[in-house]
Design goal:
Blueprint: E1 5-12, E2 27-44, E3 56-57, E4 67-82, E5 88-96, E6 109-118, E7 121-127, H1 131-135, E8 164-165, E9 197-202, E10 209-216, E11 240-253, E12 256-269, E13 283-293, E14 296-306, E15 324-335, E16 338-351, E17 356-370, E18 375-387, E19 392-393, E20 396-397, E21 401-413
Antiparallel strand pairs: 1-2, 2-4, 2-21, 3-8, 4-5, 5-6, 6-7, 7-9, 9-10, 10-11, 11-12, 12-13, 13-14, 14-15, 15-16, 16-17, 17-18, 18-21, 19-20
């Protein structure tokens, strides 16, 4: 699906000491990436959670617009060359073209790493997704790049969005994030750290079986070199020394095919925001399977998050020992340039140190039409729901929320 534009100018000149191995040529510049634009329309309830300060603005559809648009732009600069000893050396530097801080991200670099390919497999060094996130198997119920219920790139649901009370003398400076807000952040392949600087190993494929492993000593922290950072003090991060492993199996049998994967991630060191040792360590386990029959695919996936408040879910009512789980199931059908998917998701998240729990579920009907090998039109109709359990706030129970969204988008690869 992805095309590639190549130029003749050199990106990097690399010399690798492996005996007397020398690069056959300088790394040649390659450019890949994508442009995606989406629009979503959402209808739901607008409950007012009554507190001593009044209603909560931004809870459900309360004080929110009906429609919204977003775009995502990625530009990957790549370079690769093959040494005389047969080892291929390459680099990838990914840039976020839509770097708007107000929309929630001001990261300019998305991925940046070097890699070494050979009969031994591949070794990556740099800022990249973990072994689990890179090779994780989802259910096949999402056929789009943008949408879906499981780990979507874009979600226009207001279910589970963060909310804060109207500022009054009684509530000044108080802000709340209900549950694992927002619903679009829930998935079975997210891992417990995000593109930290790490070592990653991908094995060769042995009769359809392969495995991968990565280690990120400083967790989510990303520090630049060249004198911009000093020392090893990164203990303010909640997940340090993160090990990630994942195994895959893929094989085509007579009349059907199987794709499966399973793995986990563990943080061996955990600290508080003040740098002190924390008692509970974050971990995550994930598995997925897909079975194909001609144009049909069916399957399921699941994940268990240990101490999920340290996995990037900033939930006000989550204790450090609260855990969560997610299960999904789905199927897809492809005919010509059309593909259709049906996907369902259910999840449960502990709150108040196992005192109660939140339940979130959703369903998505999505589809895509391929205008060419690199241009897709996409759409989705989805329903999501969240029940926050027996969590009370200022004597009131937090009401459940639901939402129906209709989305359209484009996916253009280059």
């Amino acid at each position: 699906m992805k095309g590639k534009l190549c130029a003749t100018s050199a990106l990097v000149a690399v010399g690798v000491a492996a005996g007397r191995a020398e690069a056959a040529s300088a790394l040649q510049l390659g450019i890949t990436g994508f442009y995606r634009n989406t629009i979503g329309v959402q209808w739901g309830n607008s409950p007012g959670a009554i507190t001593t300060g009044g209603t909560f603005v931004g809870y459900g559809d309360n004080h929110r617009t009906t429609a919204s648009m977003r775009q995502e732009i990625r530009i990957n600069f790549t370079g690769e060359t093959k040494l005389d000893n047969g080892i291929t050396v390459g680099v990838l530097v990914g840039l976020n073209g839509e770097n708007v801080e107000k929309s929630g991200s001001n990261e300019q670099i998305y991925n940046a790493y070097a890699y070494f390919n050979g009969t031994f497999g591949q070794i990556r060094i740099g800022e990249a997704d973990s072994a689990l996130v890179t090779n994780c198997v989802l259910d096949p119920g999402n056929v789009t790049w943008n949408f879906g219920i499981n780990s979507p790139w874009e979600s226009y649901s207001n279910v589970g969005r963060a909310a804060g009370p109207v500022a009054t003398p009684a509530t000044q400076g108080i802000g709340f994030t209900f549950g694992v807000a927002p619903v679009g952040s829930i998935g079975t392949c997210f891992g417990i750290e995000t593109r930290g600087n790490k070592f990653i190993y991908f094995s060769p494929i042995f009769d359809g079986l392969s495995f991968s492993a990565s280690f990120a000593p400083q967790g989510n922290s990303r520090f630049a070199g060249g004198g911009l950072a000093y020392g090893t003090d990164v203990t303010s991060d909640p997940v340090d020394n993160v090990l990630s492993v994942y195994a895959n199996y893929e094989h085509s049998f007579k009349g059907w095919s199987l794709t499966a994967g399973a793995g986990g991630e563990w943080s061996f060191t955990s600290h508080t925001a003040a740098g002190g040792a924390a008692p509970h360590k974050a971990a995550m386990y994930s598995a997925g399977v897909q079975v194909g029959f001609g144009p049909w695919k069916v399957g399921a996936s699941g994940a268990y998050y240990q101490s999920y408040s340290k996995d990037g879910y900033a939930a006000t009512f989550a204790g450090s020992d609260d855990d969560g789980w997610v299960v999904t199931a789905g199927g897809s059908y492809t005919v010509g340039d059309w593909a259709f998917g049906l996907q369902g998701m259910g999840s449960q998240w502990g709150e108040l140190s196992h005192t109660t729990h939140e339940t979130i579920w959703g369903i998505s009907l999505n589809g895509t039409y391929a205008l060419s090998d690199s241009i897709d039109l996409e759409g989705q109709v989805a329903f999501t729901y969240a029940d926050y359990g027996n969590v009370g706030l200022h004597g009131s129970t937090i009401p459940s929320v639901h939402g129906l969204e209709v989305d359209f988008g484009t996916n253009i690869n280059y």
